[in-house]
Batch of 2 targets.
Target 1
Amino acid sequence: MHLYDVELTSRFWLGTASYPSPQLLLEAVKAARPGLVTCSLRRQGQGGGDFWAFLQALGIPLLPNTAGCRSVDEAVNLAFMVRELFATHWLKLEITGDDYNLQPDPFALVDATRELTREGFQIFPYMTSDLVLAKKLLDAGAQVLMPWGAPIGSGQGLNDISSLRTLRQRLPKIPMVIDAGIGRPSHACQAMELGFDAVLANTAVAQAARPAAMAGAMAQAVQAGRAGFLAGPISARELAQASTPVVGTPFWHKEES
Amino acid sequence: MFIELNGKRLLVTGTQPLERLLENHQAKPPYAVAVNGRFVPKGQYAALYIKEGDRIEVLAPMEGG
């Protein structure tokens, strides 16, 4: 897939946080071969060691985030730090509006997207699934959207399918990535069947009993879901419709009514 | 004078540029710096002098989702 003029080799994207060990993260990356990996910035001396060397060795595109920001000002300043450090214009813009469910702040998101786009950033806004917010973010300069499936780390899957379906139908040409809330491969598959362009998962893989196995399963589910979407699924219907032709069936009889 | 470095109160003697403070506290590249919530580009480390009460953040690449 093509985003901001970069070709990504997979529609499954992987977060790098909260794995039991760096080794398990590496195994997960190898199993999934994600299109990109996400990363972040924290105070130096908080552990993490040679994470930079680790990331560079992967040779996979990076999408740094602004996790933890609570205002436009914080996000903008962190964005500049991210750009200097990671040497990329890509930014997963996260601005938290509520500490309880870590819900993105839609108003701050639009303002920060506008400001950062002017500064040459290519913004991937982490957003709720609101259609009007999506349109405002596009007006502000975002060319990719990252609606949530459910709150971060909740593993609930897609908890507002109707809104997501509306987003997809109203903005058919905009690359949209389901970010957050994915718990199982079936959730990832469902997102792709709905026509979303990619899926980003972190906790579902990092906290699985076997992260590498789960990473591989997620990548396969994303592929299957995409293939299913492109194949044009039938619509669900209320009543049965025989799949085997009934004309010429032996012992055929019609009940008299 | 006292400053704050990554959330910790720190006593520094005399005026000094940000560059020297970072060296003295063994900031390990790669990192990016903000002073009082404002991003400071690398090119300004030598010219920016630390003031009493400055809050300095030295951030490094970390895992993220």
Target 2
Amino acid sequence: MSKRTVAGRVLLAGLAVLVAGCTSAGPGPVQKSGDPVAPTAQAGVLRVLAGSELQDMAPVLEEARKATGVSVQFAWTGSLDGADAVSSGRADGKYDAVWFPSDHYLRLDDGGKAKLATESPVMVSPVAVGVRTSVLGELGWGDGSKVTWAQVADAASAGKLSYGMSDPTRSNSGFSALVAVASAFSGANSALTDADVQKATPSLKQFFAGQKLTSGSSGWLAQAYGRAEPGRIGALVNYESVLLSMNRTLPADAQLTVVRPTDGVVSADYPLALLASAGQRERESFQRLTAYLLKEDVQRKISETTLRRPVTPGVAPAAGLPADRRRELPFPGSKAVADGLLASYQNELRRPSRTVYVLDTSGSMSGGRLASLKSAMARLTGSDDSRGTTRFRDREEVTLISFASKVKSTKTHSVPAQDSKAELASIDRDVQALGADGGTAVYSSLEEAYRVIDRQQSTAKDDRFTSIVLMTDGESNEGASADDFKSFYQGLPSSGRAVPVFPILFGDAAKGQLQGIADVTGGKLFDGTGSLEGAFEEIRGYQ
Amino acid sequence: MLAALVLLGGVLFAVLHRAPADDGGITVVKGVIGSEKREFFADPEVVAELKAQHLRVDAITTGSWQMADADLSGNDFAFPASLSPAEEIRAAHKVSGEPVRPFYSPLVVIAHAPVAEVLRSNGLAARAESGVWTFKMDQYLDVVRRDRNWSDLKDVAGHAELAGAVYVTTTDPATSSSGALHLAEVSYLANERRVVSDDAGVGRVRDLVRKVTAMQGDQKTSSDGPFKDFLSNVGSPLVLVYESQVAALTAQGKPTGDLVVLYPDTTVSSDHTMVGLTDNGKKLADLLRDDAKLRALAVRYGFRPQGDPGAFGAALNAKAGPVFASDLSAAGIQQAPVPAVKVLNQLVAAAKGK
């Protein structure tokens, strides 16, 4: 596991939301990195580090508060980052419990396992493929009840099926899907081994040829599916419950048919787990809350509200949840196999990325701010990263654009498929050479980034995951205006409009401008005011 | 004491009834219990009957295998889920007298009815005229040794969920009693029906205990997890649980769908063994064993009272749901002895590839 030098950075990437005030399961507020959530313990409050999927439990938890006197105060993070936070002890004393879709990854670490006092599964949802109903017909998959992962891979490699899936190094749904397809393609009859992963590699590459959207969070993935032009994204890999919930608001032509491949699925069972470090009072709160959540009427309400499956015997699943059984594929039994699978995903299996960093090096960045930028970027060129969460991946094309009053420099690096060290060091040298002076021309510089991407795409004639990261500490005060940029963006070809900008709020940046850029381009705003490193690392999940 | 327990995995405090200061005549008996007995001790009728006997139990729950290492000072009793840790606790605390086993529960394999039929047609299970199902352990271990998959068996057509290797899903033996007892059962059979007692024995069974564990991949830490998954219809086809987990549902009139209870023909029982550390603890142990009301209430939680062999069958056979074996030995179910804790730890280490 990568050693994290800044304590709590990832752990704290999220936003504390008191359940009472959290009613929306929408895309959520700005991703704030380094926000010190988790105040000291207080009576009747259970501080829970959780997956953002659990936002949909807000109505149930509000009733739980009335019935038990226990309110849940969430801090959100991805499942795998959450597991790291628990294993490393960074959750001790800050949280009383953790609640992720699954504890599989956490249990692979003996140290992490020992941090949990007890856990209780609360509900279940298998990871499935939601296929746009029209695409289902084109593929001849009938009602979707007989589809295998191999058929999905064949359709993907033939260019007939494009899909979105969250980043397996961040999110349990992506990781579960990766385990499921690796099991299916290797023919592994029991838990995956390294040899199975090797065997599955060619088929996995075919499967991932169809992945057109990636994401660090399932909420953004759903949004991106919604805004993609018709026909570009044919399917989404996600929990059955998320896919069915999306159908509640998707227009008729974008409705998803949930396919649970017949060769097996990996399910999430949402264990609510008490940390061993929790105090006596919090233990009692945990007990009361758990007992409440397992009551028959509450389980019924959970299933109807969230479309997950109940775990208490005798409680029927909500209408629309299919009853036919699927094989539950075993999860790898060792961290080495799991991390090996994740590293292969990042460096070998997935479609390569094209990432453009548009970096503000105006005068106001001089001193500490530039030093923060250099150190945050340096982490992306480091090698201490066993599952490939952070660093630039093998085969990734990285362009650094530094700007002030205008673009100062544009430098493109291609990380080779093997022996990437020298190229990573070269990227780092370019970053460390940056100097700060001049004004701030945000929009003109972004336009230049899109032009660079257009040239790269037409030269390489490839189809990579492409995204722009914009880091600025100020307000655009030179060059193109917001309206200019909007017209420029609208005039781009569809390949250009598909490229999102992920702006990072830093220093005295104008939040409104940056949110506008995220909205126009289908990106997402990240808050780097607490930790710039944390923001850069979060964004890796979207690249 | 608490601080020491907090350091252990699997610890859960269950403050069952916080008492005002003692009113006269009621003795508070403090102890540690396995979590599977939490609901029994919290049952209002159990509380009332103990009160009628002038006792009130104040217990916290913890993993059975961890009680032996814990500092138990200040407690009147320890109530693990099996005999071996009870023996360790007795030795560590120099407790004289026999340990009391008020009730017990055998390990069983659960499956959906159509899957049980597939097992039967392949000689892996049998159904007696009484309706009691048995699971053929030797045949099962042979299937594991030979890497047989569900697709190698007959009559699996139409069962999409029956794919991949045939194995029984258990909990993590390093943290959970049922997973460890499964290793006891497997090692006994693999050691030519002799309890493993030395390094040579561990060596003989090493490959098989490693195999039955490794093929499962990540294992859950408590038997609650796989059982709930099964009931949610998403779990593995064959899951090892305590009979009491299923029997409690049946005794309380809760539906279990088409769940079938298969008794391994050689199984291990979870001997809920009470170690009285003080006179009050011993008094509680005797009450749990001898009090007719408490015995009947234990059946409500799926346990078999030692002192009343007929009570379990009498209560369960009248209920709708899976068929339970009223009398284990009459049903041809044998008990595998459990190795000493030290050997069991070696088996767990072998199973985990350590």
